Amino acid sequence: MKLELDSVSKRYGTATALDSVSLTVDDGEFFTLVGPSGCGKTTTLRCIAGFESPTEGTVRFDGESMDGVPPEARGVGVVFQNYALFPHMSVGENVAYGLRFVDPPGGVTRDERVEELLKLVDLAGFEDREPDSLSGGQQQRVALARALAPGPAILLLDEPMSALDARLRERLRQQVKRIQSELGVTTVYVTHDQSEALAVSDRVAVLNRGRVEQVGEPRDVYHRPRTEFVAEFVGENNVLHGVVESRLEAEGVEVDVDGHSFILDGVDKSAGESLTFCVRPENLRAGTETNQIRGTITGTEFQGATTRLGLDWKQTDVTVVVADDGDTTFEVGQELVVGFDPDAAHVVA
Ligand code: ATP
């Protein structure tokens, strides 16, 4: 099932939750809405599910307008952040609840369908258990089984892992991804966690203040952010503003940032033009001869394989991530020189 949002806006009084959002999700695609709290992810999902009506614009399923179509007639399965299982019903009854409006697909009985779904989410034999006796991850898999029971054409997942610990989250998202591709169900997944979005999606849409900033495949959005917001939100770029001083041979330019010159490759700008570019924390390296900056360490964070350093450079906060060799230590107040290759910078504007 193909899903389209055509210039969808949603206003609550004078507040704009969604501002002319247009998106197309292809049949069978795993599509993720990612962005900070309050950017409109849940509102988008609620408009697709039919729990909210857009103030303007249209939601279409396979080209057909959903205006006035109630949620239960849309053939959409939804899993929310809080498991929302019925505590007084068994696991099997909770899954069967997903079939209250429709007959099980494939001509099987209700019991057979429940069994099928529990097997799919790796909970075969859990029919008679009480939801309370399950772990958080298991409860979310029951919620997923319930949403999938009627064979929805579209699956909507609203931060389904956010209540789980990091390890479980990783495992569950791989399971969800596997089940989604096995069933080929068009899926819209909501998360504020950019690394989660990059890990599971065919494509992501980055939302900011009710607007779509960029849509693309994870690698594309990560390596080629189109706006400063996307550059900072996805993978924590260092964003710098400068002016092109001169063009060099080939595609190179010399750029002035606050009285400091950098050489950047692959820049399509002329002398005098301003530009905004970003450099990833892991591309700022000690020992790189080009584009050096000398800063003072303002914070260190040991992360296991890497250490994150905050650097104050000309009153700009710069983040550096260095591989941890187990010996080198970094102290707050220490001076550090790092540099980056001319082709490691990406121009956003
Ligand atoms: P989060 O990650 O925190 O869940 P979100 O990206 O899902 O955030 P939404 O819940 O879609 O964001 O909210 C978008 C904006 O619309 C917010 O500013 C929110 O306060 C506002 N909003 C959402 N629902 C309502 C409502 N029923 N009445 C008034 N304002 C609302």
From TrEMBL:
GO CC annotations, alphabetized: ATP-binding cassette (ABC) transporter complex
Membrane topology, from the record: Peripheral membrane protein
InterPro entries, per the entry: AAA+_ATPase, ABC_SmlMolc_Importer, ABC_transporter-like_ATP-bd, ABC_transporter-like_CS, Mo/tungstate-bd_C_term_dom, NA-bd_OB-fold, P-loop_NTPase, Transp-assoc_OB_typ2
Location (main, coarse): membrane
Entry-linked SMART domains: AAA
UniProt entry keywords in alphabetical sequence: ATP-binding, Molybdenum, Nucleotide-binding, Transport
EC number: 7.3.2.6
Listed GO MF terms: ABC-type tungstate transporter activity; ATP binding; ATP hydrolysis activity
Subcellular compartments: Cell membrane
Highest taxon in the source lineage: Archaea
Reactions accelerated catalytically: tungstate(in) + ATP + H2O = tungstate(out) + ADP + phosphate + H(+)
Domain ABC transporter: 3-234
Coiled coil: none
Subunit composition and interactions: The complex is composed of two ATP-binding proteins (WtpC), two transmembrane proteins (WtpB) and a solute-binding protein (WtpA).
Similarity field: Belongs to the ABC transporter superfamily. Sulfate/tungstate importer (TC 3.A.1.6) family.
Role this protein plays: Part of the ABC transporter complex WtpABC involved in molybdate/tungstate import. Responsible for energy coupling to the transport system.
Protein name as it appears in the record: Molybdate/tungstate import ATP-binding protein WtpC
